Structures are given as C-alpha cells and as structure tokens.
Amino acid sequence: MKMNEELEHAFSKQITLEFESAMLYRQLAIEFELKDLPGFATWMKVQAAEELTHADRLIKHLLDRDNHPVIGDISVGSIKIDGIGDAFEIALKAEETVSESIRGLYRLGQETGDIDSRPVIDWFIAEQVEEEATVREIIGRIKLIDGDGSGILRLDAELGAQA
Questions:
Q1: pLDDT over 80 at 163, yes or no
Q2: CB 135 within 8 A of CB 143
Q3: What is the largest CA-CA distance in the chain?
Q4: So what's the pLDDT on residue 80?
C-alpha cells in the first residue's frame, strides 16, 4: 500500500540524512588518515558504508510501496578535528540527530495510520540505540585513555580490527 505524501516526504528526508551521515563519517575517516591513525579511519569508513546501506534500506521500502524516493541536497559542512575525542563527539551528535529523525518517522507513521512502515522503522529504532551506545562506549574509553599515546594506538588497533 502506497504511503501518503507527507510520510513519503519524511522518508526521503531520512534518506538524505543517512547519505549526509555517510559523508560525515567518510570525512572523519579522512581526518584520522591525516593523523596516521588507520584503525580509527577504517572504523569510520565502515560506519560510512553502513549509513549507505541504511539509505538503501529506506529507498527499497519506498520503492516496494510504489512511492518515489528522492535524495535531497547533501551538506556536511567543514569538519576538522583536534583530537580523537572530537571526532567521536561529532559522530555521537550525528547519531543522536538520526535517532530523533527516526523517532519523528515513527510518530508520523502513527499519526497517519501507516502500519506498513512500522517494521522498517522499528528496525531503525533498534539500530540507532546500538549505534549511539557503541559511540558512547568509544568516547568513554577515549576519556579513560586521557591522551596517552600507547592507549590511543591500542584503541586504534582494536577498532581497526573490528572493521
């Protein structure tokens, strides 16, 4: 069943946000590459790829329902980090923005009585809880390291191996 125009537009905005998140993560990967931290860069690249799969999942949902997905203007802005903590704080803020947008889709789906959107939205809600928790855990570990070079290199290696 085709979703109404308002919900279709909200899904398209979410698709654009997922693409923006992918570009943000890719820029953060570049910043880590410039700092010779390949593990952090790899982790960010994996996150960028995951955001693209999220956009594709939303696009597929719209197409499956005979709606027309539209990718809007993508803007990341200028990103430059001073330390590793800065990058993960930026990532956390982006994840929180995505989470709130997904909650908005949920609310709009309820308001419009669009039951068919629930499975995909529920999946995204669970995914965002996991995404935020992962980034918060990394931020916590960065704070524990407190700028210690060997700790940074160890975390760099660990995150690179997870990818």
A1: no
A2: no
A3: 56
A4: 85
